[in-house]
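agent> Task received from the user: take the single chain below, predict its 3D structure, and emit structure tokens. No templates, no multimer pairing.
agent> Plan: (1) validate residues, (2) run structure prediction, (3) serialize to tokens, (4) report one or two observations.
agent> Step 1 OK, no nonstandard residues flagged.
tool_call: predict_structure(input=
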Amino acid sequence: MSTAEAEAPRLDRAEAYAKVVHRIYHDRRAAPPARELLLAVAYAVFLSPAEPERRLTAAARVLGKKAGLPRFDTLVAADAPRYQPPREAGDWSPGQAPGCQAPRLREYVYRPRRSATSGEKAEDAVVPLRRPPAPVVHVPAGYVPPVDYRNARGICGANSHHKVLEHDPHTGWVIPHWFCKRHVEHAERVAAQVAEQNAAAPEPIPNTGGLLASYFKAPWEKVYRRYAPKTWSPPSYGLAADDWPDPGDPPPLRSRLRLVAR
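)
tool_result: status=success, residues=262
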């Protein structure tokens, strides 16, 4: 075999590697950690001299460790396909939860809090208070003051204490609704309205992970079960993010590269 013939497979792998890297960098779903994982696996598939059954080991060696733990383990666990509910659906305290979504009946007007040392009148204060001068605000001509978000959205906006979760009938995704103490009856009414819809909602479509399975062919379920939490289970929609339903913008079908997992 000539030298040119021996170099041909290597050049083909380098060209394929360049194409995959180009796709990875233009994939908006790949955040920096996921992108680094995909690039490491692509290197192990195309450029690493490791044997096929040791390619994931080569990728793990390239990624190194952080705080004494292999970064490969953490990144693969983060790529496990699953549905990640929105932050607003968590169990938040009243001061951290979103404001009450009940409809506002009258316009919100800002009222500054009274001083703890003041009584009903300024002269009744324990510590005499001097009225501060009126503020002077310089604004350009035609300035329109901003509208408070509670008035713009027509919501109560008070600290919430009650949460109602609604499941989208098409995607199964969670839509959280929050209500304050004054609107408990409104929260109960909304919960009754969405009860039947939630019972019939489908399994949530995954919105996180699934990129490794979209770029490379391998027994990824076995790999994910090894690194993901024990509570993880494969979604019924498939492991690859390219296979998940997306009514707004369905992804094109793409060929996947063969990879032998360690």
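agent> Step 4: summary for the user.
The first helix runs from residue 3 to 25.
agent> Done.
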